[in-house]
């Protein structure tokens, strides 16, 4: 009986122990299931993040490759232009496709045009083969027809005309430089003559102080000096106005300033003459005669100053105009970044229009060189080409003007 009770107690304890172990295992299993679930969710998130990162990295590599290729083309375009400039002097790089051009310059021009076409075609994600086809057709047509005799003669005459215009422009620039140097020379000479006049005025004042009636003569000399200084200020203002306006000074104003210069030289001569007479004067009558001469010269000086008021007004107007232009130029400083972008766009358009213009000119000369006159459909085609050439020349002139304005 006792042994059976012990067995029952041992079995009960073992059953309780097994139940406890099962409960513990169930709790651990539940916590492990939650942990596994969280790990699976985290693993799924990591897989998604890895996919997004891989896609982003691939897109970034493609974008970087495209950007690097465009930059590579820009760098080689700049190097090609630099190499073209290092060769012997000649026309622009887009004009050296002429078969008569030297071989090194022609090779540089051809490579430049090919790089431009490649850059324009690869501006997007995919290569634009239509743009490449159009650009290469223009180059092939240009090389095929450019060497015709009529086109060569026309280009030769055009080059001669451009050379004549260039010579005329250089002459105008030299004349303007000489004109500007004239004003600076006038200013320097006036400074020297004014210093000499001051010194001679002091000497005249000392001489008149030793003579009878010195107070009247001294007053006349001071009045004469005042008018002479007013003339000096007038000439200085005229020279400053010329330096501000530069090339826009008119011939009439230049003649007026030259007239003022001549009058200043004449007054300087009169001062020297009066100084000599005062040194030689020994009597009161001679001194009075010199004083009368001074009065006459002062009257002439007053009339001259009155006549110079118109010139002063013109110089003031031109000075105001120069100041307004200066303000406008200052206001345009804020537009420099936009102007640089516009200038780059205009350069690209300029190159494109030059190619089109020369291609159409060659086509036009080739059609004009045919023996039978153009009638019917051919005549309409010729008229259309002429009109297109005229439009392109107009656009080219406008672009060139805008380019010069932006560059200035």
Automatic annotation (TrEMBL):
Keywords: Coiled coil, Membrane, Transmembrane, Transmembrane helix. Residues 29-56, 152-217, 264-402 form a coiled coil. The chain crosses the membrane at residues 6-27. This is Uncharacterized protein.
